[in-house]
Specification:
Strand order of the largest sheet: 1-2-7-6
CATH architecture: 3-Layer(bab) Sandwich
CATH class: Alpha Beta
Order of helices and strands: EEHEHEEEE
Oligomer: single chain
Number of strands: 7
Structural class: alpha+beta
Helix content: 25-40%
Distance between the termini: 27 Å
Length: about 140
């Protein structure tokens, strides 16, 4: 099974991320997002950051997760290439615990692809069936 694929959107880029379960699909969404910014094969897993998110539904959780990844990229000046996600549901709330690994940005080492300005809610989807599929669009 492929981890992710891209689709064209005017002035933006969209991606589908896939997984055997919701955790794996979210991990692959992180990988898809950072492959837009740089080639994740060249990003060493030197530093790690842990964070937690609570959201009201799976789509909001995906949005909040991608926003958090973009936040750490911009504030810590890091690129990430490994994503470990644990999602649980309690009553009407969805909880995500993540550990992301990467390294400080070094444009002499890392390929500079596209800058992501924002995550959009436009057409965002979470489809849970035999294979979990996520759909997201980022603003370039």
């Amino acid at each position: 099974m492929k981890k992710f694929e891209y689709f064209d959107v005017t002035a933006d880029i969209g991606f589908y991320a896939f997984g055997k379960n919701l955790n794996e699909a979210f991990e692959n969404a992180g990988l898809a997002m950072f492959n837009i910014i740089s080639n994740t094969d060249n990003i060493d897993k030197i530093k790690s950051i842990d964070f937690e998110i609570t959201s009201e539904d799976n789509v909001s959780l995906l949005y909040d997760y991608l926003e958090e990844l973009l936040f750490y990229h911009e504030v810590e000046f890091m690129l990430f290439s490994e994503f470990s996600v644990q999602i649980s549901q309690v009553d009407d709330a969805y909880y995500l615990k993540a550990i992301i690994k990467g390294e400080d940005i070094n444009w002499d080492k890392h390929e500079r692809n596209c800058e992501i300005k924002a995550i959009t809610f436009h057409q965002m989807e979470v489809d849970i069936s035999d294979v979990v599929s996520l759909k997201a669009i980022v603003d370039l």
